[in-house]
Amino acid sequence: MQFLYPTFLFALATILIPIIIHLFHFRRFKKVYFTNVKFLKEVKEETSNRNRLKHLLVLLMRILTIAGLVFAFAQPFIPQGDEVKTGEKAVSIFVDNSYSMSSLNAEVPLLEKAKQRAKEIVEAYNVEDRFQVLTMDFEGRHQRMVGKEDAISLIEEIGITPAVRELDKVVSRVKQALNNTSVENKTSYIISDFQKNITNLQTEQDTIIDFNLVPLQSVRKQNISLDSAWFQAPVQMLNRNNPLVVKVRNISDEKAENVRLTLEHSGQTKPLGTLNIPAQSYSIDTVNITVLKAGWHEAVLTVTDYPVQFDDKLYFTFNVPEQIKILVINDGSSNRYLDAAFKGINFFKVDNVRSNNLDYSQFPNYNLIVSSGLKAVSSGLAFELKNYVDNGGNLLVFPSPNSDINSYKGFLGGFPANELVSFDKNAGSVGRINTEEFIFKDVYENTRSNLKLPTTKGHYKLTDFGSRGEERLLTFRDGTTYLGKYKKEQGHLYLCAAPLDTEYNDLVRNAEVFVPMIYKMAISSGQDRKIANYIGRDEVLEAANPLTGAESVYKMRGRTEEFIPEQKKIGSKVIIGINNQIKEAGYYDLFHNEEEVLEKFAYNFDRKESELDYFSDAELKNAVGGSFKVLESNAETDFTQYIGERSKGIVLWKWCLIAALVFLLLETLILRFWKT
Q1: Are 517 and 554 in contact (CB under 8 A)?
Q2: What pTM, to 2 d.p., does this model score?
């Protein structure tokens, strides 16, 4: 047996007080007159013996009462294997309050059980100890060390949060707080469900802080999650079916049947049917969204699920332009066939501009730029076109039959793309069309049934460098490139080996190839805009920058909040940094003037927490090695007693106090009922 405060044992000297009182207790003798003193000596001896025994018992009870009180203040304990640390302690308690903690443990959410455990841990320590209460939110006030009552108040305030952090970041935060204290005894408790996708604890031994893991697990590992959604086409069109692909996951060991999927768009809720999803798998469905008006659109997909509901909705936004804008750069007059191809499609707007009359600042406003028959590409134009493609633009190049090859070599080499070598006046014909690539994908039901492919009476031979990353869309019968595609940064370059002039190339007369080709190039995008973003990932957003003043400031506005994000203007674009300022799922508008919304963004709760795959106690022990102690317990375990026994051994002060009260009671009974 050991004592937490052994100096209190000096108070055992106080047992001398009742001993001294007993030894010097003189009583007045009362005279009693007897008529016969024959038996007086015998009676006197018997009474004296009984009084002496009574006084000794009273003395013993008083000594034991004082000893019990002294031992209670000295706080004796029996060590249980761990080294018992005495003195003031600094204790950090992390409560996982992410969305996975909303699943049930018995009949209550895991978060409520975690808060109960945290309060029991606090109660296991002394009043003079200091506490840090930490959550997934990483709030500044949670970095301070507080007293016992304040710690319990902070624990009671904890609620579910969308924030998700790996546990190695939690450990770093704990170390930062505890290492700033002057207290020598430092202990940390991490209360979590220990999902495998966030439990990345390092196994290095920390001898300064005693880390303890308190695992909690739900009774049902079952969840249906709206994982993601995306449009098949990069640009959504008016008055057309825009296919939306939806991915729904079943995170359970049982098959999910009749999962209802609905879509809310333009103020209407539309049921999309039911899904049957295999266990631990997913289902992909495609729904058509018909858009009747241009501009920004808000929509939300929903499935019905319980009890984990944070991932049952997927908010997304998309923009439908009134017109697809195309810039055609010519040396002379415009190509009438090219104009005719777009004339019958009212949502295409074509601007024909001569190469010597260009406004480079307008390039970002076009979905597609067509270089049609330029004899030479100046260095300034080459730089601007490359910059346009780098920032997500699409460029289609038709060379002139008498092009300056050196000029084109410098222009194409900057991407880099295969270069013009020489002009071949021999006839050629296209023999293969790549229907696996976006431009011609899903355009033809059967490419073998009388599909007329382009022919040429002259075309350029191109270099064939594998390092240029060319993807052939149309190929001559001899295997050389007729139309090639090159990915450059966020955009695409399309290079045709033949001029657009009908004297050399009949592509413009071949409507079944030319029209869908130009159409798909115009609506394609090198950088697909995300229709849905996720809270906590802190991804950088990109938007058009119509403002020129350096003092102009963009703002973000949600349903209940408005804030100024981090922003950096780069030419015609502005880079937006959220920096974890968004806490609630929904729609957020980017604006400068209150009346004009520049872009809409949809934010959803992070799907990391959807994966209900936890470490068991045994797996957790193997994963962390000896760096962390795993505190195994069940739902009925009293953590106040459990932690007390671990940190102080088997505590005996309560029994000492009870013993003191018992001895005091016995003394009272002796004095009251022992008659002499």
Answers
A1: no
A2: 0.67
